[in-house]
Amino acid sequence: MKNRRLFALALAIVAVVLNGCGKSAPVLHIYIWDAYLPPAVVDQFTKRTGISVTIDHYGSNEELMAKLASGVTSYDLCVPSDYVVQPLIQQKLLHGLDHARLPHVSNLTPRFVNQAFDPGNQYTMPYLWGTTGLAYNKKLVNPAPDSWNVLFDPAYKGKILMLDDKRECFVVALKLMGKSVNETDPATLRAAADMLKKQHDLVRTYDSTNYDNTLLSKDVVVAHGWNGQMAKVVSDHPDDYAYILPKEGGDIWLDNIAIPAGAQNVDAAYQFIDYVLEGETAAQIVNGVNYASPNEAAKAHIDPKILNDPNIYPPDSALKNWEYLNALGGATDRMISDLWTEIKAK
Amino acid sequence: MKSARSTLLALHALVVYAILYGPILVLMVFSFNKSRQAAVWTGFSFDWYVQLAQDAELVHDAWHSLIVALVATAASTAIGTMAALGLAGNGRELSARAARSTTTALVYLPIVIPEIVMAAALLTFFSITRWHLSLVTVMAAHISFTVSYVAIIVRARLIGFDASLEEAAMDLGANRVQMFFRVKLPIITPAIIAGALLVFTVSIDDYVVTSFVAGTDSTTLPVKIASMVKTGVTPEINAVSTVLLVCTIILVVVSQKLMTGRNAE
Known about the structure:
Number of domains of chain A: 2
Low-confidence stretches of chain B: none
Mean pLDDT of chain B: 87
Mean pLDDT of chain A: 89
Helix content of chain A: 25-40%
CATH architecture of the largest domain in chain A: 3-Layer(aba) Sandwich
Largest interface: A-B, 41 and 42 residues
Radius of gyration of chain B: 23 Å
Helix content of chain B: over 70%
CATH superfamily of chain B: MetI-like
Number of helices of chain A: 12
Shape of chain A: globular
Distance between the termini of chain B: 44 Å
CATH topology of the largest domain in chain A: D-Maltodextrin-Binding Protein, domain 2
Oligomer: heterodimer
């Protein structure tokens, strides 16, 4: 009797496993950042098309690249960031996009299409975007900063946090020197590294995941960081914290939706991309995840509180000197890595 | 003198336990934090547990973890026990001894190899064999690196096994099958259970290997938590960690109760 029950359990497990392999009903497999796609948006897609959706998460662009490069994934959609799009295209890991199958593509805001990393959007469609700026404690930082200079101010020695991200830190130094975020000149990069090396003594910690909490716990008073988490800090404590886009400029990040080369269900993937490009859907995503959408038609449906939040939707005037990060190529990447090691080792 | 020593010992124990459990306690306390940010205490609430229960994706991923851990435990325990029995075989010729020591070394390898190397190797293997990544590859990977734990633990128990018991059972008329189920198996059962528990706990919280070999619809809880951290550490992560912790503790307590109960019989 006991054995029979065990046997039944084993059969049930096998059934569950095999069920996962079944290919009868159309299924769309999405591989995306966590908290980037509200469940309601997915449910609505399934209701409309009858296509069921599975969602898996990755924590870094590198993880996504490694997975796609293995050549044995069956994901139908993924959302790579700007600087990994080019390497993905070069390694032939993305499926080309036929714009005729994406009628809502015209909804996109012109400034977000046709980027250097994917000219003509032949492989990707912009999904969500944001900025890398700095947030500070209003009570402890006087006067209110408007420049990256505050991160180099000896008055805040030991109270400064920088992202643990080599490209982002170089952006700060390069922008203070009046250079492009995609600078490749070795002498300029070395000068930027010297600035960051000098700054090292002032920095409390380099951290890319918990910077919002470190700022809130007052361990630091000014922190370099991405707008998503900082916007949450500011909206929770508007009297104590502020997020700014320094006047020298910086980098805009842009995440893009794409079909991996090994996709099993390309038709469903096209349907989903076009669904996301619809204004109502894009707005629903923005309202759910608190990031800005590159979709112009979405604006009519976005919660005004989000649309009018300058930390999420900065005015165009604030973004004059803001650029996208491009892939820099092997030699420059190696040089930046080496310089970064020197900076951190100091 | 003696009391000074015991005070020192108590102090030492206190420091050790504080270091071991302090961080975990902080994590648990902050899972009841009202604020969205994990680091600043603003008041008591169960909000994050409510959100946790309503987070369909998280619950779905927790099921993945549980299924993988159960399958890996069942398969690894069976394979590992058989391996241990084979390794404890009593061939005395040189070739048998050489085969035994080589195989034993091979069994240890998956435990001493850095996990990241194991992960890359498994992904390469699946890539070469064109085995598409899914929950099944996660199970296969978990089985491949957990078999060793069972094999080693069960083998250690078998080393202390008194062969005369075997001979006595056969002498008294038992055939090999009866001898195995009535004498040998009951003696090694605690080791098998210990091995199975270890496999379960290793499998359910594995991140490195899983993040390499997970494919469609196979995100497990640790992989999900790692991706959640990327968009900010909220008390929801503390809450899910607390739930995982409490479940593990219950499991360990129950299994210890089971084992002491068995011994009392």
